[in-house]
Specification:
- It is a single chain.
- The longest helix is centred in the C-terminal third of the chain and has 4 residues.
- The chain has one helix and six strands.
- The chain is globular, with a radius of gyration of 14 Å.
- It is mainly beta.
Length: 84
C-alpha cells in the first residue's frame, strides 16, 4: 500500500529557546486530544505530521535527513501533511 502527502493549509508559529546546534524536528497535531501519536497498522501517522527539511517519505527518515542547524534566531518552515 502506498502513502501520499496531503498538505494541510494554514500557519502556526512556535518559538523555542534552544542552544545553537543541530536538531531534527518532528511536529504532530493531536487532533483527537488523546496525548499520543496515532498510527495505522504500518506505523504511519494518522494525524497531521511535519518534519524538518520536509522529507518525501518512503521509510522513516534518519536524523541526517531531518537535521537542521540552529544558530541564534533561526526560522524553519515545516509543512504539515496527512498521509493516506
Amino acid at each position: 500500500m502506498g502513502y501520499t502527502h496531503r498538505p494541510i493549509k494554514g500557519t502556526t508559529t512556535v518559538t523555542a529557546d534552544l542552544p545553537d546546534g543541530q536538531y531534527a524536528i518532528l511536529v504532530m497535531h493531536d487532533e483527537n486530544k488523546n496525548h499520543r501519536p496515532d498510527m495505522d497498522g504500518n506505523g504511519i501517522p494518522t494525524e497531521p505530521t511535519g518534519m524538518s527539511n520536509n522529507p518525501e517519505l518512503h521509510a522513516f527518515p534518519t536524523f541526517d535527513q531531518l537535521a537542521v542547524n540552529i544558530q541564534g534566531n533561526t526560522t524553519i518552515d515545516i509543512d504539515m501533511v496527512r498521509y493516506k
